[in-house]
């Protein structure tokens, strides 16, 4: 916790008419009280770690004002325990809390509010803490299948990574890189949300595929309904039904909706990727992920060329060698193992 340095100059310029004076010392007192309340709340909620205890000791030793503020809050807390509990049918009688032991005058109400604020923040953090979390990655050789605690299933494509967090009122997944197929168990009380870069996908129970690339997001639905939020003001949210796919290109701020056979949704799970009308630029990123080496398209005219076909994701170089038969391209393998695609001359 940072230590706030609060000092005021001995000489002050006269205030202009209509300007209200705010004393620096008053502001500093409030800041110190707030810091003391946070420390008190932490120590009441749980045992401090060794690092936290050392930080607390440094804060106490930094200024006599810090130690006094903490002692005052401790006194207030102890005084609350001494309040007489009134009978239900009689008027409340509560003894007044003396403040003669305090070196500084401050409002008991303000101190109590600071303590309650600190405790409330701690409770809020605990409420927001996930009840289950994991990070999963698939290597370059194996597809990874994960069964989650609610019965949902997550399948990661080669070279993909996802972070899963379950809360009491929601389920969240961040697709850090690559592609994943989701079979979500229905739970109306806990919606299922996927974040992939700027885009978000929300469902209750369904089966769908999400692919994240450097410049875009693609979502295809096999079963159920999926709401896609592109995360850009110029792109409207879309609701997809089975057989629908949306491809978002953030570089051009465009969204393209198409239909595809249900068998093509997440077809890579069998090891054979079936693709239809896919831009070469996007396919090159996917090929690079499968082979573990970059695939660069250097000719701008080739970037938007589209093609359809199948790809053995365990042997991507076979597809690359066949690519000149599908498009007017030339392949060059560089010393670092990367592939460069240029227009055929």
Mean pLDDT: 79
What is the beta-strand fraction? 25-35%
In the CATH hierarchy, what is the architecture of the largest domain at level 2? Sandwich
The computed structural class is alpha+beta
Cα distance spanning the termini: 64 Å
| Total strands | 18
Radius of gyration computed on alpha carbons:
31 Å
The H-and-E topology, N to C, reads as HHHHEEEEEEEEEEEEEEHEHEHEE
Give the total of domains.
3
Please, how many helices? 7
Describe the main β-sheet briefly.
Answer: 13 strands, mixed
Q: How much helix, percentage-wise, in residues?
A: 25-40%
CATH-assigned fold name of the largest domain? Jelly Rolls
CATH class of the largest domain: Mainly Beta
Poorly predicted regions are 1-27, 85-108, 123-127
Organism: Halopseudomonas oceani
Protein name: FecR family protein
Transmembrane segments: 105-124
GO molecular function: sigma factor antagonist activity
Q: Please, could you describe this protein's structure?
A:
Helix 1 packs across helix 3, helix 1 (24-45) packs across helix 4 (108-128) and helix 2 (50-62) packs across helix 3 (64-81). The chain folds into three domains: 24-85 and 96-128, no CATH class; 130-266, Jelly Rolls, CATH 2.60.120.1440; 271-345, Phage tail protein beta-alpha-beta fold. Strands 1, 2, 3, 4, 5, 6, 7, 8, 9, 10, 11, 12 and 13 form a 13-stranded mixed β-sheet that branches. The longest helix is centred in the first third of the chain and has 22 residues, at 24-45. By secondary structure, the protein is an alpha+beta fold. It has seven helices and 18 strands. A hairpin with an 8-residue loop joins strand 10 and strand 11. One of its GO terms (molecular function) is sigma factor antagonist activity. Keywords: Membrane, Transmembrane, Transmembrane helix. It holds the Pfam family DUF4880. This is FecR family protein. Residues 139-227 form the FecR protein domain.
């Amino acid at each position: 916790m940072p230590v706030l340095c609060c000092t005021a100059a001995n000489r002050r310029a006269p205030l202009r008419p209509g300007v209200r004076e705010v004393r620096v010392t008053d502001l500093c007192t409030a800041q110190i009280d707030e810091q003391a309340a946070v420390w008190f709340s932490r120590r009441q909620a749980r045992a401090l770690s060794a690092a936290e205890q050392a930080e607390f000791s440094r804060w106490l030793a930094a200024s006599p004002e810090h130690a006094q503020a903490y002692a005052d809050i401790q006194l207030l807390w102890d005084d609350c325990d001494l309040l007489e509990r009134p009978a239900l049918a009689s008027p409340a009688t509560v003894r007044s809390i003396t403040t003669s032991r305090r070196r500084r005058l401050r409002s008991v109400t303000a101190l109590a509010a600071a303590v309650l604020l600190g405790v409330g923040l701690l409770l809020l953090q605990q409420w927001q803490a996930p009840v289950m979390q994991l990070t999963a990655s698939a290597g370059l050789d194996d597809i990874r299948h994960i069964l989650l605690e609610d019965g949902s299933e997550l399948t990661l494509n080669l070279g993909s990574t996802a972070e899963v967090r379950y809360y009491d009122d929601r389920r969240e997944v961040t697709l850090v890189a690559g592609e994943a197929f989701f079979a979500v168990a229905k739970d109306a009380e806990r919606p299922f949300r996927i974040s992939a870069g700027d885009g978000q996908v929300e469902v209750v129970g369904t089966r769908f595929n999400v692919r994240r690339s450097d410049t875009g997001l693609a979502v295809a639905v096999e079963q159920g309904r999926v709401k896609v939020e592109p995360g850009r003001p110029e792109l409207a949210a879309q609701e997809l039904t089975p057989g629908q796919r949306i491809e978002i290109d953030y570089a051009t701020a465009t969204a393209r909706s198409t239909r595809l056979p249900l068998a093509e949704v997440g077809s890579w799970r069998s090891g054979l990727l079936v693709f239809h009308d896919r831009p070469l630029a996007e396919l090159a990123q996917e090929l690079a992920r499968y082979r573990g080496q970059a695939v660069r398209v250097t000719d701008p005219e080739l970037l938007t060329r589209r093609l359809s076909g199948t790809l053995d994701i365990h042997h991507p170089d076979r597809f690359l060698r066949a690519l000149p038969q599908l498009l007017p391209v030339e392949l060059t393998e560089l010393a670092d193992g990367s592939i460069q695609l240029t227009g055929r001359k």
